[in-house]
Amino acid sequence: MVKLDPFLPDLIQAGLKGIEVWHRNHTPLMVDHYYHLAKKYNLIPTGGSDYHGAGHDICNILGGAVAPYKSVQLLKTAAGKN
Questions:
Q1: Is 48 helix (H, G, I), strand (E, B) or coil?
Q2: Sign of the CA dihedral 14, 18, 24, 25?
Q3: Which long-range contacts (CB under 8 A, 24 or more apart) does 11-15 make?
Q4: Taking a C-beta distance cutoff of 8 angstroms, is the pair 56, 65 a contact?
Q5: 51 burial via Cβ count (<10 Å: 0-12, 13-18, 19+)
Q6: End-to-end CA distance of the chain, in Å?
Q7: DSSP structural state of residue 64
Q8: Per-residue confidence of the chain (82 residues) as pLDDT tens digits?
Q9: pTM score, two decimals?
Q10: How far apart are CA 29 and CA 50, in angstroms?
Q11: Are strands 44-48 and 18-23 parallel, antiparallel or unpaired?
Q12: Alpha-carbon span 35 to 38, nearest angstrom
């Protein structure tokens, strides 16, 4: 969980715009950690179920994790689609 934290400033400088907060395998502690990192570094908090279709791994549960609609709006704005 914390292994990538020291690299975030460099990743942001390289163009990172968001960080996955909500994922089916994230514990509540991980969600809280990543959400606070998103706020700290002004990153878009993202997430989802990682659904890739039938026949994939255990993470492959459609709707297994849901990000708030606000994240979708922020992604659209960042992409110039709003």
A1: strand
A2: positive
A3: 12/41, 12/43
A4: no
A5: middle
A6: 32
A7: S
A8: 568 889 999 999 999 999 999 888 889 999 999 999 999 999 999 987 666 666 666 656 666 677 888 998 998 998 888 6
A9: 0.76
A10: 20
A11: parallel
A12: 5
Instruction: Give CA–CA dist 36/30, Å, rounded.
Output: 10
Amino acid of residue 82: N
Structure tokens at 79: 């992409």
Look-up of token digits 């606070």: 36
Secondary structure letter of residue 6 according to DSSP: G
Query: For position 2, what pLDDT does the model report?
Result: 61
Domain ranges in the chain are: 5-78
Judged by DSSP in three states, 78 sits in: helix
Residue 19 near residue 38, CB atoms below 8 Å: yes
Q: Which of 72, 64, 1 is nearest to 37 (CA)?
A: 1
